[in-house]
Each structure stands twice: as structure tokens, then as C-alpha cells.
Amino acid sequence: MIQSMTGFAAASAETPRGRLSVELRSVNARFLDLQFRIADELRALEPALRELVAARISRGKLDCRVFLNEAAGAASGQLNSEALAQLRQLASQVQKEMPHAAPLRIADVLRWPGVMSEAALDEAETRGLAVGLCRRALDELVASRMREGAKLAAAVGERVAAMRRRLAEVAPLVPQSLATYQARLAERLREALGSADDDRVRAELAVFASKSDVDEELTRLNAHLAEVERTLQRGGAAGKRLDFLAQELNREANTLASKAASQELSDCALELKLLVEQMREQVQNIE
Fold first, then answer.
1. Which terminal CB of the chain, N or C, has fewer other CB atoms within 10 Å?
2. Are residues 225 and 128 in the same domain?
3. In what order do the strands lie in the sheet with 7-15?
4. What pLDDT was estimated at residue 73?
């Protein structure tokens, strides 16, 4: 299925130290751009998580945040006797230098860095838990990207259908509008030449006809639209191909506008350019 490049997902679980959480945020980008924000004590998890994400996501800028919310009250913490002894020595020295200074309160002591030694994280257990959380978050992220991708594909399909309808309306008018314009041009040529030199007029009309023939442009427009529909049906990472097809559609619409021999053709070309631009806005968010 077609996927969007925009999404958010999160998963978390309890550990002896607190709640371990994994958050994934993705936005559109030309290539796959992975950014990890992980606490130093969890930095060893990055290679495994990077491999997991790269296996599921092929395009977009994705931020992965892994963090540990410490358990309230630090129930698993213990007093660090060595740090406490150092703090006691420092407090004694300060008391000698500043006899009137207020003594340390218990709350101050407990907040002092290193006084409370926290339970060490089991590396293997933490890795397994983080990998499981990342898989859950990836499942949720991919599901949300697919839901939005379906909406984007529907929006692109609507523009393609509108362009097909417009081409079907204007195609039968091309021969008549071209003949009408040629007749007007022939009259002007005769007036400009000051004579009824039919050979000269026919030569000029032949040059005009070759420059104003839009059958090739109409054929290519329909071919590109058919390829867009096939790409949407095939699904997968189709964003770059759809963007290329949108550029080609815009190129043909520009050529059609430059060759337009009637107001109907000119209006059609302008409408096509507007629909192609609307399609490209949606395609920019497709993986």
C-alpha cells in the first residue's frame, strides 16, 4: 500500500528503574534520515534500534527518542556510603570556615549527586525490552502512515480522474478548433501577402499545422496518467516515481499551452497545470 511519510507512535514499559519509553516521529524528506536521541546510559541500544527502523522505513526524516523516567521515590535506590563520607568531610570543612552556616538538611543530602546509588540496568534485559518496544512503535507508526497514505492516494487519484475527464472533453474539439484557426490564419496571410498565392499560403499553413499539432501531447498526457494509476495500484515506496510523473505531466501541460490554437485548449492546459500542482502537493508526502 501507499504510505505517507508523516506519523507518530510511542510505546513504553516498566523496568526496576522506572518507565522505559520509545517515541517515533516522522516527516517527509527526500531520503531516509534517521536521528536518535538516547540517554547516555542507553546509548548501546542505538545500533539495534537503527537496524529495526531501517528495515521497516525506506524514506522520510525519522526521529527516535528513547528515555527512562525514573521511578517516583527511587524505591530501588541505596545510599552510597563513599559519596556520603565525602559529603560529610566537605560539610565539616565548610563548617570550620563558616561557623554560622546552616547545616545540611536530609533533603539536601539525598539530592546531592552520587549519594543515592541507583540500581544498575541489566543490559541484555534492557536491550530486549527496548527492541520489543521499538517493534510495537514501528507497527503503530507504519499503520498510521498507511492510513494517511491511503488518503493521499485517493487525493492523487481524484486529480488523475479530473485530468482524464478534461482531456476527454477537449480531444474531440481539437480538429475543429485547428481547422477554424487555420481558416482565419489563411485569410490574414492573404491580406498580408496582398495576393491569393495559394502555394505560399499552403506552405505557411503546413508550418503552422506542424507547430500546432497537439496529438502527441494529448497521447503522452494520457500515458503518464495511466502510469500514475498503475503506480498507485502497485503501492510500495512510490513517492519518487510519482513526483517524476508529476514533473512530466507539468511539462506536457506547458507544451500544450504553448501550442494551443483555441481558447478551449488554452483553458484545458491551465486547468491541467493546476491539477498537476495539486497532485504534487500530495505526492511530496508519499514515501
1. N
2. no
3. 7-15, 18-27, 60-70, 32-38
4. 47
Q: Number of C-alpha atoms within 13 angstroms, CB side, residue 146?
A: 11
Cα separation, 171 vs 21, whole angstroms: 59
Give the residue ranges of DSSP H helices in the chain.
46-56, 81-97, 106-111, 123-170, 173-193, 198-212, 215-234, 239-259, 263-283
**Residue 2 per-residue DSSP state:** B
Give the count of domains, the chain.
3
- Minimal CA–CA distance to 279: which of 153, 180, 150? 153
* β partners of residue 19: 14, 69
SS3 call for 64: strand
Looking at the structure, tell me whether residues 247 and 176 fall in a common domain: yes
Residue range 244-264: average pLDDT? 87
Domain ranges, residue 65: 7-73+122-145
Same domain, 141 and 12: yes
Q: Are residues 174 and 210 in the same domain?
A: yes
The pLDDT tens digits of the residues spanning 87-131 come to 788 878 877 878 877 777 777 776 677 666 655 567 788 889 999
Same-domain status, 94 and 158: no
Q: Are residues 38 and 83 in the same domain?
A: no
pLDDT in tens, 202-243: 555 454 554 556 778 888 999 999 999 999 999 888 999 999
What H or E segment, with its residue span, contains residue 15? strand 7-15
Half-sphere exposure of 124 (CA within 13 A, CB side): 0
**Using CA atoms, how far apart are residues 268 and 167, in angstroms rounded to an integer?**
8
Q: How far is CA 111 from the centre of its chain?
A: 44
Higher pLDDT, 216 or 285: 285
The span from the CA of 98 to the CA of 218, in Å, is 92
User: At residue 105, what is the residue type?
Assistant: R
Same domain for 230 and 135: no
Query: Whole-prediction pTM value?
Result: 0.70
Phi, psi of 164 (to 5 degrees): -60, -45
